[in-house]
Amino acid sequence: MDRREFLRCAAAASMFPLLPGCFSPRRYAANEKVRMAFVGVGQQGWYDIRQFGKFPRLFECVALCDTDMGAPHTHDCLKKYPNVPRFQDFRKMFDKMADKIDAVLVAVPDHSHFPIAMHAMKLGKAVYVEKPLAHTFEECELMMKAAEKYGVVTQMGNQGHSTVKYHQFKSYVETGLVHGVEKVVVHMNNSRRWHKWQGKLAKLPGPEPIPATLDWRTWLGTASFHEYAADYVGGEWRAWYDFGNGCMGDWGAHLMDCVHQFLLNGDLPTKVEVLNTVGWNRFVYPMDSTLRFTFPATCSHDAMELDWYEGADNLPPLPEGFEFAVPDGIPKNSANDDGEKVKLYPGKEMYQRDGTVWQSLSHKHPLHVVGDYGRKLPDFPAEFCTHYEGFLRAVRGEMDTLSPFSVAAPLSQVFTLACIAQRLDRGFAFDPNAKCIVGDAEADALLKGVPPAKGWECYYKV
After folding, report:
1. Dist. CA 264–CA 410, nearest whole Å
2. Is residue 87 part of a domain?
3. Number of folded domains that form the chain
4. Residue 302 falls within a domain, yes or no?
């Protein structure tokens, strides 16, 4: 689809009788299914497709799209849906099938979330976009505005926002059990893909022969041209400033989501500081990084410092009585019998002014009080459906999603500010009202990022 055709479709979409906050314009019969297209059908995309497939009464797969269609990561999906139309370019998919699609899953590298979601929303389609919402601060802003303008159902793929963690956190804040939180420490201390490159990466990789199955130009999307290299694809994209949002973009949506929504009311920080960096590089994210976000007090929340620790050896100071859950779910002490540190499971500690320390580990474990792991806590509303079922039911007009773009975009903007600080290896002051970085022109320019590639500019208008 060329630009004129896209603009024609977008103009038609703008005429839909939609209002901010309304549901999909289509009306569903009791036994009618949501017709979904999937952009990105391997790895996370294939996981998402299988989760939607658990609700056959609500869901129908009508289109599959992947820039590397036919590569090994697509085989399971293609075998499952052998007769579903296949595409390598989402624009051609919409050109041919827009009237047969109700909703779109976007599960591709971070830098390509934005154009696919914008195209879908302008055509009046509901969108489920994997986390983080987008690659840059401006893209998050535009996606939030587009969701409001076109009145479509939206959801970001931080699946923990529909689990027991969400309902417990919401209940405990609303009833005052969690209150007066002045400091939050968030940590993700697993090793990452890019750690193998630290100290060795002096230039961008490539060029290498482009696989016959891959549409490299469409894979690049809005990004500036890069010669193909295998180190960009297959999940490696998360490592690169040009394509991914690093550890923060990957795990921040799981570990910071409830804090940001219920304790910070979705606000943006006024300061981002780099407290520690190990293995800084011009091309990929650091080995270790410690960041601090400052959120001043407002009429809706207390002042708060939020510290972020990432890196396998970058453990935060742990509170007295600390316990953590390893993947098998068995609580253990933070040191072994010899006093050596044990790897810290992803999670957070929240420090109240009254001395209470709350802890939440992973995006599945519920809150508990540090030093009193077995303490009986009040009951709270149980989860009633998964992130995936909630999205399908929202498209049908039966409920609201729990992580719509109005919630997910400001959260993802916090991640993009972190990525700027990591990329420049320095902190900065931020004006949440003007939505600009103060006194640092280079950092401020990164709120938008590099200009979009030729032919992709039209997506940056709402």
Report:
1. 11
2. yes
3. 1
4. no
Residues 6+ apart with CB under 8 A from 89: 65, 67, 215, 218
- CATH number, domain containing residue 97: 3.40.50.720
* Residue 38 forms part of a structural domain: yes
Q: Residue 392 falls within a domain, yes or no?
A: yes
Q: How far apart are CA 143 and CA 28, in angstroms?
A: 26
pTM above 0.85, yes or no: yes
Residue type, 101: I
Terminal CA-CA length for the chain? 19
Task: For the chain, 462 residues long, give each residue's pLDDT as a single digit of tens.
Answer: 444 444 444 443 443 333 333 344 567 877 899 999 999 999 999 999 999 999 999 999 999 999 999 899 999 999 999 999 999 999 999 999 999 999 999 999 999 999 999 999 999 999 999 999 999 999 999 999 999 999 999 999 999 999 988 999 999 999 999 999 999 999 998 888 888 887 678 899 989 999 999 999 999 999 999 999 999 998 899 999 999 999 999 999 999 999 999 999 999 999 999 999 999 999 999 999 999 999 999 998 999 999 999 998 898 988 887 766 554 554 444 444 444 445 677 899 999 999 999 988 776 678 889 877 667 889 988 777 999 999 999 999 999 999 999 999 999 999 999 999 999 999 999 999 999 999 999 999 999 999 999 999 999 999
3-class SS string, 380-396: CCCCCCCHHHHHHHHHC
